[in-house]
Design goal:
The protein has helices at 19-24, 48-58, 74-82, 96-105, 119-129, 144-159, and strands spanning 9-11, 29-32, 63-67, 85-87, 112-116, 132-136. By secondary structure, the chain is an alpha/beta fold. It has a single domain (9-163), classed as HAD superfamily/HAD-like (Rossmann fold, 3-Layer(aba) Sandwich), CATH 3.40.50.1000. Strands 1-6-5-2-3-4 form a six-stranded parallel beta sheet, with helices on both faces. The radius of gyration is 14 Å and the shape is globular. The two termini are 24 Å apart.
Length: 165
Amino acid sequence: MPFSLLPKIRANKLTDITAELLQSRNICLLMLDFDNTIVPYTTDVPTEEMARWLNKMNSSGISVCIVSNSHNDRVPRFCREYGLDCITHAKKPFSKGIQECLAKYGIPPSQAALAGDQIYTDTLGANCAGVTSILVKAIDNHNFWLKARHVLELPFIFLAKNRRI
């Protein structure tokens, strides 16, 4: 698949993505990054708005699976609590975890999307795997490295300014 750092869709936050938007694009599998997409790095407790959104997505007919590079047990624990599947050690931007998720659900890349907060892992990984990339704003860039990464992503965010939902 093509190497691209531009997301297909941009959203202010994950909860702006609706089942109707995904269905209108023939997407039936939504893969989600975990840290700074669903919850900040510092907790595994979602906001009430995020918990409602996860429950709504779970009942919408869209399959939802967390695809995270994390090696931390907080991701599987969170997924058990919210009734979600997860794939950890995904190695994004490489396609290992994304391909594993597609195979698990038997879904072709054209019917899947991956939403995350990082261009160099989530967006690039999705684009290279042929799934729809959705870039959401990071919940909290709480340290120097996260802020520096965001500065490096700004040119690509600007180039994708017309891809907002």
